[in-house]
Amino acid sequence: QITEALLKERDKQAKWNGIPLLLQKLYEHSHPNSDFSQCHSILKEISPLLSMEAMAFVTEDRKAAQESAFPNTYTFDLFGGVDLLVEILMRPTLITQKKKQKISDDLIKDCLSILYNTCICTEGVTRRLAERNDFVLFLFTLMTNKTTFLQTATLIEDILGVKKEMIQLDDIPNLASLVSSFDQQQLANFCRILAVTISELDTGSDDKHTLLAKNAQQKKNLGPSRAEINQATLLNIPGFIERLCKLATRKVSETTGTSSFLQELEEWYTWLDNALVLDALMRVANEEAEQSSTESSDESGLANTSTRTQLPQSMKIMHEIMYKLEVLYVLCVLLMGRQRNQVHKMIAEFRLIPGLNNLFDKLIWRKHSASALVLHGHNQNCDCSPDITLKIQFLRLLQSFSDHHENKYLLLNSQELNELSAISHKANIPEVDAVVNTDRSLVCDGKRGLLTRLLQVMKKEPAESSFRFWQARAVESFLRGTTSYADQMFLLKRGLLEHILYCIVDSECKSRDVLQSYFDLLGELMKFNIDAFKRFNKYINTDEKFQVFLNQINSSLVDSNMLVRCITLSLDRFENQSDAKVAEVLSECRLLSYMSQMSMRMSFLFRLINIIHVQTLTQENVSCLNTSLVILMLARRKEKLPFYLRTLQQMEYTEKYPGFILNNFHSLLRFWQQHYLNKDKDSTCLENSSCISFTYWKETVSILLSPDRTSPCAIVSYIDEAYMDIDRDFSEE
User: Region (Disordered): which ranges (predicted)?
Assistant: First the structure.
């Protein structure tokens, strides 16, 4: 509506670079009956002005870049450019079937590029586009076109990243046929987009949320969340999981011919966010090209292509790694979702595990190439190379795959499964059903299964490596659930116990996360296993070493309490056995002797109750409450409960704070009832890990909470009237 004369006059002073005038022309040429031919040439003039800024924005630090530094994109948006382009793109959807207008692919590409560049440089544009649901769903329909696929995918990813409400995949028109139209390359890129739609929005800090807040949230959300509905939608797409498994397990040499990849690289060049990635890739490529000219590699290219178009091996590898990352992430989220069992069945059937096992040395845990690549991606602040992220994603997948699931034995190969059976026969114990029932045609092949390969790299990992945490978590989830002697012996024979102790004691590991994962793993490895305690004693063979070990345990009970629980439970079981070997280990083992002292158990109990409060309970530290309960349940079995409670009372008096431990413990147990007696709560974990029936857990808590002040097992009997403080209700404050 502003006159052309005025726009021309202000243009120089305002440094608008003629953008408002160009937009006015664009507006005139994009009326409903136009053929858009003029629009394209106008866009060609606007495009470079914006892409230069976007280029600068990507190469400079995004944080430092201020809006004022990017006047062109700002001007473009200010004069309605963004809305105009959205209107041009969506025009064909408004016209009746008879006279369908066709917008050329190049025009669509340019519109998308300009929108993307404006999103990068100008605050608020992405958010505005995200609020237009019709536009977001429309973008998905553009993905059916191969030529505009990459541009569309990149823009959608940006928009979904800021969208407040998660989109419903169900709303995308013809989703199943859209997905089936993708080739494998597009499917991998599509997984990047899916990642945002199937992950719960705040999963990142799951362990940090207080349980009170989480329970309150669950009461509000009665139905499944959007992410869960989206997961179900994906699982209903025919052949979807099978294609993901194929993508995750294909070898680099199987990737499609060279030419389409080169063409895609050219597209990426025009496509900003990945320009940096490509520069980095090209750098590696040149290094590799120099190397590979001296040595020929069987996979380095197809015989019939000329040397010029052959892609260096490392570029193919990098490309493949970036794909596998996205795919493994999606599989991992689905494995942790509501349809876990269905996903498990499919993943086993499509031989994901043996496939990953075959890629382990060449791709997943390959020797690092010279250049460390830094990619921008899921998170701008983390400098993860794709290599590193792939390893972590792979370990997370193993962890969710074997956690409390019978399919975990697919991580072994046939010989290793036979070894498990042999261990059981030798020890004269029945084989685990899951081992017997494992379908041998779906297990790993090759010399080693995935689990043993993982142990190998775990032992070689440098002390300060960030992988240690994930490796320990993955192996620990294999041992979780009902304790299996054969599984433990399988790992003990491979030197795992000594490796863990070396890390905890000799290298005096300092990282809290790694220590916690090592203590948890050690607990699962040693629980009820007399041979493990014997090995422990052989390794920790001096008082100095034992003292270092104790200092590590005591440095943070939140991290080590699962190990304390395992030692307490094992000691209790060993004391009730009349076996000469057990008696010998009991008398010799430093760790068991230490834990058999009443004063030590009381000291642990006192500290475990003291470090947690109802208001600060999280998924991570609630285990301290359960460990303190285990100590008291074992005391109750021996009819020592009153003695333990009286000792806690005396300890309070010594500390000059009568009532402060027992009042807190009373509140914690009331919360325990609320939390674990909820019908959705899964109590089998508590039973399996302790071998104490859940009924006994419940009874013990009720006895401790009894209001009867004359009962010798009720907490209230040990708090003087004056110090009673147990009637408060919990709230989320």
Answer: 288-308
**φ, ψ dihedrals at 360, nearest 5°:** -55, -55
Quickly list H helices, 293-368.
313-335, 340-349, 352-359
Q: What is the DSSP string of 616-655?
A: G-BTTTHHHHHHHHHHHHHHHHTT-HHHHHHHHHHHHHHT
Domain range 1-165, CATH class:
mainly alpha
CA distances from 647 to 420, 595, 602, 642, 661 (A): 45, 17, 8, 9, 11
Q: Are 659 and 719 in contact (CB under 8 A)?
A: yes
Reply yes or no on whether the pLDDT at 301 is more than 50.
Answer: no
203 CB burial (10 A radius; 0-12, 13-18, 19+): exposed
Longest dimension (CA), the chain: 103
DSSP string, 67-134: GGG-HHHHHHHHTTHHHHHHHHHHHHHHS-GGG-----HHHHHHHHHHHHHHHHHSTTHHHHHHH-HH
Sequence length of the chain is: 733
Q: Which DSSP string do the residues of 399-429 spell out, in sequence order? A: HHHHTT-GGGGGGSBHHHHHHHHHHHHHHT-
Predicted TM-score (pTM) of the model is 0.85
Q: How far is CA 529 from CA 24, 283, 542, 645, 711, in A?
A: 79, 53, 22, 30, 37
Alpha helices in 438-597 (DSSP H): 450-460, 467-479, 485-492, 496-501, 512-526, 530-539, 543-555, 557-575, 580-588, 590-595
> Domain coordinates of the chain in residue numbers?
1-165, 635-732
> What sign has the CA pseudo-torsion 606, 611, 616, 620?
negative
Contact 145/188 with Cβ under 8 angstroms?
Answer: no
Return the ∠ at Cα 47 (arms to 43 and 52), rounded to 5°: 170
* 422-433 average pLDDT score: 95
Give the chain's end-to-end CA distance (angstroms, integer).
54
Instruction: Name the packing angle between helices 37-59 and 71-78 (round to 10°).
Output: 140
Bridge partners for 413 per DSSP: 444
Identify residue 106 by its one-letter amino acid code. D
What 3-state DSSP class applies to 591? Answer: helix
* Cβ-proximal residues to 229 (8 Å cutoff; 6+ apart), any chain: 168, 169, 170
Query: What SS3 state is found at 704?
Result: helix
Alpha-carbon torsion angle 556, 559, 563, 566, nearest 10:
120
Residue 286 CB coordination number (10 Å) = 13
Q: Alpha-carbon distance 264 to 281, whole Å?
A: 13
Q: What are phi and psi of 558, to 5 degrees?
A: -60, -40
CA gap 40, 36 in Å, rounded: 7
Predicted pLDDT of residue 472: 96
For 277, the enclosing helix (H) or strand (E) is helix 275-292
Phi, psi of 146 (to 5 degrees): -60, -40
Helix (H, G, I), strand (E, B) or coil at 236: coil
With cut-offs at 50, 70 and 90, classify the pLDDT of residue 177: very high
CB 730 within 8 A of CB 212: yes
